[in-house]
Amino acid sequence: MNTTDAPNEEIKGLKMDGAGFISHEEKHYSDEENAIWKLLCERRMEKLPTTASSAYLEGLEKLKMPMDRIPLFDELNANLEPLTGWTLRAVNGFIPAKMFFGSMALRQFPSTLEIRPMGRLEYLQEPDIFHDVFGHVPMHTDSLFADFVAEYGKLVTEYEVGSERFDAMARLWWYTVEFGLIRENDEVRLYGSGHMSSFGEADNVFLGGPEIRDFNLDEVISTPFRIDIYQPVLWVIDGFEQLRLAVDELRRRWDVSN
Ligand SMILES: [Fe+2]
Q1: Residues, beta carbon < 5 Å, ion ligand 1
Q2: Topology of 20-253 in CATH?
Q3: How far apart (Å, rounded) are the C-alpha atoms in residues 169 and 94?
């Protein structure tokens, strides 16, 4: 982490130690919950080595992501924080959008502690720990991606939820962090958490399901999304520096200083 980017512990009057954050260490998982995590990992790892981006796969290694039980946040943070300054923080279910995105500016990734039930292993609309931790966190070991998300968090907290600019930022998040694609060695690979933590939608990418376009910031921020269908259009980047440049471009366009 670049210390000149050290986040302020308070953003726009939003204290990040308030409601919503909880202790992870008090959470104890049942054998069944750990078995669900193991099953989800086994099923995803059948496909991810040949479909996920190298940054994501290397992230799993760097984190020493446990595949046979739900990880403790402390053990992941011990591997994550020295790399990019990011840490995982436990939250109690949904937290307000402003708090969720604001925590990104502090390089704190909020994650729920609950895991999906055995009967619903497919992608869920609501987040669970498999989506948040297995889906999102490996990418935060990549310095370019980690810097992008922190810069994204700083910019998005400039805007009120429901404003046009907030909506534009939400679309940028959706089509990159959640469902972004990257081209590696002329092949399309996944890096979005929505794909990492799902089965059918990730497979659908390689079955010709979505239209795949080269990343275009104006298209992305003007394309509404739905969370209840497979994404009909996805955008592919050539490198993660494109994402940071996209945030810089919006900052310049909207005349927001660093
Ligand atoms: Fe997500």
Answers
A1: 193
A2: Phenylalanine Hydroxylase (1.10.800)
A3: 19
Q: CA-to-CA distance for 157 and 104, rounded, in angstroms?
A: 10
> 190 forms bridges with which residues in the sheet?
52, 181
**pTM to 2 decimal places:** 0.90
d(CA 198, CA 128): 12
Residues 6 or more apart whose Cβ sits within 8 Å of residue 198? 122, 123
* Each residue's pLDDT tens digit, 54-73: 999 999 999 999 999 999 99
Q: Give distance in angstroms: CA of 53 to centre of ligand 1.
A: 17
Q: What are residue 189's phi and psi, to 5 degrees? A: -130, 155
Place of tokens 């990257």: 182
pLDDT surpasses 70 at 206: yes
88 bridge partner residues: 109
Ligand 1 centroid, distance to 177 Cα (angstroms)? 7
